[in-house]
Fold this protein.
Amino acid sequence: MQYIVKAPTTIGATINLPASKSICNRALAIHAISGGHIMPDNLSDCDDTTAMLKAVSQWGDTIDIGAAGTAMRFLTALLCLREGEEHVITGTQRMCHRPIGPLVAALRQLGADIEYVGEEGFPPLRIRGGRLSGGRLEVPGNISSQYISALLLIGPAMSNGLELHLTGKIISRPYIDLTLHVMHEFKCAIDWTDVDTITVKPQTYSDMPYKIENDWTAASYWYEMLALCPHMEQQVTLPGLYDGSRQGDSAVRYLFRLLGVKTEFLRDDADTMVLTHHTQPVHRMEYDLVNQPDLAQTLVVTCCALGIHFHFTGLATLKIKETDRIEALKTELRKLGYVLEDRNDGELLWDGTTCEADPQPVIDTYEDHRMAMAFAPVALVRGELRINNPEVVSKSYPRYWDDLRHAGFIITETNQ
């Protein structure tokens, strides 16, 4: 399937974004560990959260989480607590080529019984649940924050709790802090007890009502649309986002201020914000995205479309996402006439080098939701853009295309 996306001349809409899948999956993990009866409120209907919810509701002998990376990591840890049960956890072909070795090694040190069904270091996994002793554990700070979060979430259920010591450089710290924040919300005593150590004692999560905040990463595409809209003073209203959010991607409001978009929270409604296109962007942008890697595609595409030179670092994890996002960005932006350079397995830059653009470019999405959502707003600059396999947005933002239509975009389906 292919969509032809035609842009409106102006944008003005109120958009109810999906709930944060990062918070949804943490809250569902806690709900499962505690055996609670009160389901978190405002759960997302995206693929990742649906996969997590199905797994913790059914606990089947074989759990197929599809392409849900966070669910794979969190459920690997949760299944280790299922005493007397044996489960196999697997996913899509791409998921079975995404590494999970560091998490498995850490869980084994805590007493988990896990074996690889296929290739060493990758799913599928066979897990036999039991009691985990816990205690002190040392892991590199530069592994995926999802591994670290998975360990922390099950820490309260271990006999000796967990003292997690992170060695070397700690990446994606906001995602770790988000995990601590959600655990605190469920009355779990956990904290940084040193600059590199997190301690949680054996305890029980509270079973309590909990409303999940909307997703700041999803908001980034609306920031992009306003930045690319040719008319000033356009605005979009986004309810359900908090001024003091613990989501790492809430940094998008500061980054896009450099690109001409202002953020303002309503005085009489503290969880509703208004975005306004109000000023000219900077001429060059440099930023270390190690703590906000999911904003990379949005920022890269926006900067190219605005003619802003950039140098982004901290992108090493992009190579092991739904696709190799660095190569995907280079390939698809070349179709639009932009020649990007990558360096050192974690840097992406553009110095203004261009090539001849395809006369009618068609953007491939690589089974990656963020490729589709980051490129669609370019229609505001080009008039229209074609997107292959647009349905991939269901992974995190199922209503994305409907919301674009609500904002005035004309979207036509074609099989070409």
Observations:
- The chain has a mean pLDDT of 94.
- The CA atoms of residues 60 and 87 lie 7 Å apart.
- The radius of gyration is 21 Å.
- The chain has 13 helices and 20 strands.
